[in-house]
Task: inverse folding
């Protein structure tokens, strides 16, 4: 078996010495190759062809099948590069901190959206459909679960794997610029004509999410919460058709096609979030769940003794 170990060490050395951009390109290539055997029959089952516009239900099936493969590929990359999940911002050693950062991220995302749309309403650019609020009761939980799934996968891929790999060859700033560019351009794959005006906003979104990882000590949970919160809030508003654009505001501000990321309101929301996560005093590291349980047992024993 010595020859096998020798070959393995040579391969590991080759992987480590490979330039970061080549690793990223290799990741996307393997990802697509692994997905195609699933995507082709799935597209046939959905009666969809590449040149046809995607319906929402078709897009969800395709995205879900694509994103489920990514963690498997990253797991293989971790194994052969001799890294750890924590290298890519995934650490489950302190579930309490993860949960709190996730909730803070969701709250900040929803708060930023609320401020942006309330300002637009005050300026007369949007109106609210009062009757549509009732629809949120039925759709909010399913959309939240979907948003958490999409946020987790995209953060692991972009702010986790790609950002970390690029930082091995580039400064964090340059790596952020490249990662955010890849993140923005990758969204053109599905509906490029609708997504093209969003590219600058998507790029800034990627930068803010990378900032969230830095602020959170390298963990992805805050970025995950922000990403999920934005997807949740915007999808709920769109699905329930709560917002009605009056046409009084320029699309340069409200967003082209009613999409905030394609206009000034979305940029304002992202910049506001960037300031918030940089200035808000995040709590000191909280005790882990085992530590919490130990403290609870200690208090219980003290009461019994008393």
Result:
């Amino acid at each position: 078996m010595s020859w096998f170990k020798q070959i393995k060490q040579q391969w590991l050395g080759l992987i480590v010495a490979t330039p970061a951009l080549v690793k990223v390109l290799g990741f996307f290539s393997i990802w697509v190759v692994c997905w195609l055997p699933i995507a082709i029959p799935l597209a046939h089952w959905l009666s969809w062809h590449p040149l046809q516009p995607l319906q929402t239900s078709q897009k969800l099936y395709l995205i879900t099948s694509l994103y489920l493969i990514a963690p498997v590929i990253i797991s293989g990359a971790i194994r052969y590069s001799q890294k750890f999940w924590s290298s890519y911002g995934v650490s489950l050693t302190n579930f309490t901190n993860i949960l709190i950062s996730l909730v803070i991220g969701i709250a900040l995302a929803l708060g930023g959206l609320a401020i942006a749309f309330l300002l637009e309403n005050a300026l007369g650019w949007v109106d609210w459909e009062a009757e549509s609020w009732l629809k949120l009761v039925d759709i909010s939980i399913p959309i939240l679960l979907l948003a958490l799934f999409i946020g987790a996968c995209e953060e692991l891929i972009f702010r986790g794997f790609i950002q970390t790999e690029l930082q091995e060859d580039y400064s964090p700033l340059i790596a952020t610029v490249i990662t955010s560019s890849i993140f923005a351009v990758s969204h053109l794959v599905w509906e490029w004509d609708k997504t093209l005006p969003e590219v600058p906003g998507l790029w800034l979104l990627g930068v803010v999410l990378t900032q969230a990882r830095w602020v959170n000590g390298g963990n992805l949970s805050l970025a995950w919460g922000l990403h999920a919160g934005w997807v949740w809030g915007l999808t709920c508003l769109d699905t329930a058709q709560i917002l009605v654009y009056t046409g009084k505001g320029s699309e340069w501000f409200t967003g082209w096609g009613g999409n905030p990321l394609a206009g000034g309101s979305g940029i304002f929301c992202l910049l506001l979030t960037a300031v918030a996560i940089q200035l808000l005093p995040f709590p000191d590291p909280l005790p882990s769940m085992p530590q919490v349980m130990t403290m609870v047992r200690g208090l219980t024993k003290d009461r019994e003794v008393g």
